[in-house]
Every structure is written in structure tokens, then in C-alpha cells.
Amino acid sequence: MSFCKDCISGVRHEGTPEGTYEEINGIRTYVATPQTDYPKDKAIIYLTDVFGLELPNNLACHPQQTLFIQLTYPTQLLADDFARNGFKVYAPDLVKGDPVPQEAFNPGVNFDLSKWLEEHSAQLAGARARKVIEGLRAQGITIYGATGYCYGARIVVDLAFDNVIHASVISHPSLLEHKDLDTYIEKSRAPLLINSCEFDARFPEEFANLADEKFASFAPGYQRTFSSGVHHGFAVRCDPNDPIQKAAREYAFRASVEWLIKYLQ
């Protein structure tokens, strides 16, 4: 089992999605489109955590933003935020409409994540992401970045193994093993950004340090950010009323946008 209690903890945020839902190669997909001109041959594949497309944090935005790299407040919602920074974003339904329920947030609820994962493996979710990419290729999109959170980070890594994507961002990853670092270095040409944090049972300090050591000479590019004082899940499910969590979330988002801009130009 490669999840932890922090995979299903956090603060839900309110917001109204600006994008639309489309069926792409048979997969329900949330599509966020920039309001300004953008490269039509490039796209970001947004790979959600276990809450999927149903958690508002993963989709919607709020109209307040004035940063150098635009980040919406106060809800800190993600897919639309990437689109506001010049990327067309596609977020596939990785779990066939059966995500971890939002009620898992409620005090006293002990959701059986292990049982859920038996029916929603990363391999099955990855196959759905690949179907969306195949559909996008048929539309003329040829260059892809991918950003994944927790569960979705595993899928980013698998896509990178096969060089389906051209730039990788993973935040507080789950389901990874030490051997995946070697496989990534051996097979992938996609530069890798890892957004990590202080309290993360699934990507602890020892694992993070090992990644730094192994990727030190990774030619395509490597970077790891680190946010102290926050837990696994911070990059998507933080408490915006906590200044430490809010700053960490902003830092990870900014690093992700800068990474994708740098390597998808």
C-alpha cells in the first residue's frame, strides 16, 4: 500500500469552473482554455489526485489574480489557473466517475483507500490518460507537459518512461518506488520537477535525497522544490487561511508554471 492518511485530508474550496467538459477519445475530460492566444500544438495533461474531477480544488477558479504568474485566490484552484498562464489544459477523468468521495474529508470518516485502489489502479488510470493523448494527437497536438498530484504523479512518471510527454511535474507523489528513479533516468527524456514537502510519508526525506543524488547529472533537466511546515497534499488541498500552507501552495504552483514554460517553449 503506497498511500497515507494525508492523501485524503485537506480543505475543500469553493469555486465555479471556467472550462468545459468534452469527450475525448471516449474519456470525459475537463478542458481549460486560455483567454489569450496560445500554442495550438501544445497542451498540459493535468492528472488529479484520488478525488478526481469532482473535487473543486482540481478544477475551478476565482477571478481575483494579479501575480506575475497568475494564481487565483482565495480558492487556489488549479486546472483553470494553468490555463490562465497560457496553457490549454486537459484533465481526464482517471477513475471512470468513481473518485474517492468528498465525504472522506469529514471528521470520523475512515475511508478504505486500499479497497478503492484495488478497483482504480494507476495502470488503469494511466490507460485512460493515454487515450486522451491519442485523441489529442489526432487533433494535431504533438507536444505535452504533464502535471500530477499524489496518485496522478504516478501516471506522469509512467508517461515519461515511454516519452509520451516532453516535460514532467509531480507534486507530493504517491505509488513510486526507488527503482522508478533509475527507470526514469534510463528511459525518459522529459525534464522532471518534483514539488516536495516536509511531512510526507509517501515521499519522505530519504526518498527525496535519493532522487537528488540520482538525478544530479540528468541531462534533460531536474529540480526539486521543498516546502517546510506542510504535509502531503499541500499543492492541491491546502488551507488557504493558513499562511504557511498558502505560501507553499503558491510556491509549488509558480515553480510548476515556470518549469512548463521553460521546457515547452
What does this protein structure show overall?
The chain is of the alpha/beta class. It has 8 helices and 8 strands; from the N terminus they run βββαβααβαβαβαβαα. The chain has an 8-stranded mixed beta sheet, sandwiched between helices. Helix 3 crosses helix 4 and helix 5 packs parallel to helix 6. The longest helix has 22 residues, at 243-264. It is globular.
Shape type: globular
Provide the low-confidence segments as ranges.
Answer: 5-12, 60-76
Strand order of the largest sheet: 1-2-4-3-5-6-7-8
Order of helices and strands: EEEHEHHEHEHEHEHH
Q: Summarize model confidence as the mean pLDDT.
A: 86
The number of helical elements comes to 8
The portion of residues forming beta strands comes to 15-25%
Question: What share of the residues lie within helices?
Answer: 25-40%
Largest sheet, in brief, is: 8 strands, mixed
- Tell me the Rg in angstroms: 17 Å
Structural class: alpha/beta
Cα distance spanning the termini: 38 Å
Topology, number of strands: 8
In short:
The protein is α/β, with parallel strands linked by helices and 265 residues long. It is built from eight helices and eight strands; from the N terminus they run βββαβααβαβαβαβαα.
Topology:
Elements: E1 20-24, E2 27-32, E3 42-47, H1 79-83, E4 89-92, H2 113-119, H3 122-138, E5 143-149, H4 151-161, E6 167-171, H5 178-187, E7 192-199, H6 205-214, E8 222-231, H7 234-237, H8 243-264
Parallel strand pairs: 3-4, 3-5, 5-6, 6-7, 7-8
Antiparallel strand pairs: 1-2, 2-4
Helix pairs in contact: 3-4, 5-6
